[in-house]
Design a protein that fits this description.
Elements (H helix, E strand, L loop, with lengths): L10 H8 L3 H7 L3 H23 L5 H12 L3 H14 L5 H27 L9 H18 L11 H12 L2
Helix pairs in contact: 3-4, 3-5, 3-6, 4-5, 4-8, 6-7
Length: about 170
């Protein structure tokens, strides 16, 4: 997928890469967009799992996990960003609209739970409403993901630049 990009990746290539049978794939999915949605959700699940497994009692540690998993330079991050950009570039497509909407809702759910945990641990301002705050942060991350595809200055999207901004916003 990294070589061809999402638009040029075919279902046959996905089948060949995954080892799943043609019938098995078509039994569960109607399109590659649905497969991409599942890949995105699995990636968010991995980030969530890592967050709870490795988060320490500081604000920087958990924020670093999330930001590094979204904006890092390894293949999983690149695939995530590529799929995200592919899906959001099709607002007129009802299928991709639904996928992005579901991912957005899921991201809000995760973000709200992370913020609530940080408030419980005394790391995040208790006056912040978790879902509303998660919505602001998700919008910020969505914007960064889109900008990262078009802005030549990569230093703007390095985790080291994003983490302090987010932690200042949340801090008690």
């Amino acid at each position: 997928m990294l070589k061809l990009g999402c638009k040029k990746t075919t279902l046959n290539e996905i089948i060949a890469q995954s080892g799943v049978s043609n019938g098995g794939l078509y039994h569960y999915f109607k399109s590659k967009d649905e497969i991409f949605g599942v890949i995105m959700k699995q990636r968010m699940d991995e980030i969530n799992e890592r967050f709870y497994r490795e988060a320490d009692l500081s604000l920087v540690g958990p924020t670093s996990i999330i930001v590094n998993e979204l904006f890092g330079n390894h293949d999983n991050c690149k695939i995530f960003r590529s799929i995200f950009l592919y899906l959001v570039s099709q607002p007129e497509n009802p299928r991709t609209q639904k996928i992005i909407s579901e991912l957005h809702d899921y991201w809000l759910e995760l973000g709200s739970s992370w913020i609530s945990l940080g408030q419980k641990d005394g790391l995040i301002d208790p006056s912040l409403e978790p879902k509303q705050t998660a919505s602001y942060i998700v919008s910020y991350y969505f914007g960064l993901l889109i900008n990262s595809a078009y802005v030549a200055d990569e230093s703007l999207f390095k985790p080291e630049a994003i983490i302090p901004f987010v932690t200042r916003f949340l801090r008690v």
